[in-house]
């Protein structure tokens, strides 16, 4: 009976201590903050150490750069929307070799082949997952061909998942919706690609891409700002081997054109290509309309027309 009373009193004291540390400082009632570096809970007002020798729940090792941190980490890869199962399933390598690089025996190869087959069946259990797997593979292929960064691939995958979840695919091809998602994601990330560039790496026609893109943006309520001609300039200038001075001059031409309303109703790709060509001439760097046309995937006639319009917008430059 005595032991039970003692345990009861100890429990009451523990509860009181926990309530005090939760509610505030036991001395002044001030805010108690955790000092993780020293493993203490300290009152921010009077400085009283409420608790000490706290448990460090972080790793027991230290790392001084990101590479060392990745090497010492004992957790798997993070989840990603670019894979239909978000990267949580098992992936069996296609090479018939063990962890040391040695070839497997014939019996082991047959066993691994059976495991691959069943693993693939379990990863795509229904038509929706097969659809998602095919589409995300297309998104990854097109993003690689266009040189788009990982964040664009993630965004495009999320847009496609939303379209699939809201049943927007019936009557439209998987490739068409996947391509429109890449186009929308690139514009949202500020690294747009023209419809011609998108169509070159896609398996569907340009008209279908444009039609599906408008439908997906409207149905999902995506906020996609109009493409800015200036966002194309760094890529065009880099592909043509132009200097930073020429790239800066091209952006100045486009800013002047936007201030005077010359860009209204014009293709942003055509304006960017013409600005790069004009800037190259103004900075005495060698390039031709044919080279710019090839890099921007736009006709030389369009470049010439936009070129004259850009120069006319510059008050200080005679045409």
Automatic annotation (TrEMBL):
Task: Indicate, by first and last residue, each region the UniProt record lists as having compositional bias (Basic and acidic residues).
Answer: 1-16, 59-74
Q: Where is the TFIIB-type domain?
A: 21-51
Q: Where are the sequence repeats?
A: 137-220, 231-312
Q: Write down the superkingdom of origin.
A: Archaea
**Keyword Transmembrane belongs to the record:** no
Q: Which keywords does this chain's UniProt record carry? A: Initiation factor, Metal-binding, Protein biosynthesis, Repeat, Transcription, Transcription regulation, Zinc, Zinc-finger
> Which is an annotated Pfam family here?
TFIIB
Q: Where is this region: Disordered?
A: 1-33, 59-89
* Gene3D superfamilies listed in its UniProt record: 1.10.472.170, Cyclin-like
Q: Which CDD domains match?
A: CYCLIN_TFIIB_archaea_like_rpt1
Q: Which cellular component, as a GO term, is one annotated location?
A: transcription preinitiation complex
The UniProt entry, under InterPro entries, shows: Cyclin-like_dom, Cyclin-like_sf, TFIIB, TFIIB_arc, TFIIB_CS, TFIIB_cyclin, Znf_TFIIB
PROSITE patterns xrefs: TFIIB, ZF_TFIIB
Question: What are the protein's GO molecular function terms?
Answer: DNA-binding transcription factor activity; TBP-class protein binding; translation initiation factor activity; zinc ion binding
The processes (GO biological process) annotated in the record are: transcription preinitiation complex assembly
Q: Where does Zn(2+) bind?
A: 25, 28, 43, 46
Identify its protein family. Answer: Belongs to the TFIIB family.
**Its biological purpose:** Stabilizes TBP binding to an archaeal box-A promoter. Also responsible for recruiting RNA polymerase II to the pre-initiation complex (DNA-TBP-TFIIB).
NCBIfam families per UniProt: PRK00423.1 (NF001658)
What is the recorded name of this protein? Transcription initiation factor IIB
Instruction: Record the organism.
Output: Halobacterium salinarum (strain ATCC 33171 / DSM 3754 / JCM 8978 / NBRC 102687 / NCIMB 764 / 91-R6)
